[in-house]
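Appendix B, record 7
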Amino acid sequence: MSRLQFSGGGKFKLSESVQVHVPIVQNESGYPPVGEELIWCTLRENGTYLVDNIPFYAPNISLGDEIRVETQNDELWFEELVNPSKNTTIRVFARKKSFGPSIIPRMQSFGGHTEKMEGVDLVAVSFPPTADLAGALAFLDKESDAGNLAFEESAVRYR
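Structure tokens (predicted):
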């Protein structure tokens, strides 16, 4: 799969990945620590884009979602969610550095797909409908209560 950045007047072929900017609204304490996130998406025949990575901060967006974008200053920007996937996205933060390395294998043991942010103890997890999400949430609740991690549900699709 080729990953391309959008450039003015560029034309993309189907199955080529492009970066799409997603604006992030920060709360009064400055969280999340970014004002936008770049997500990888693949152009579809109908002109929409399919999200093909797990977002770290973009709210209500999951792996496999179909989105519409708009062009601003030669960049692609998220416009709207067209067709949500059935994947649930959860962010997991290691509160204790020693606990960080165990997050990915544990989330994968429940059927989750993971992406790790470099330099930060943050893991984005996508749970497909076939995953043991109840088991993962029970584990996350238990470890959160123990002070080992914090987590937040970003795109809830299991309800």
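Remarks on this record: The helical segments are 100-109, 133-145. Residues 1-11 have pLDDT under 50 and may be disordered.
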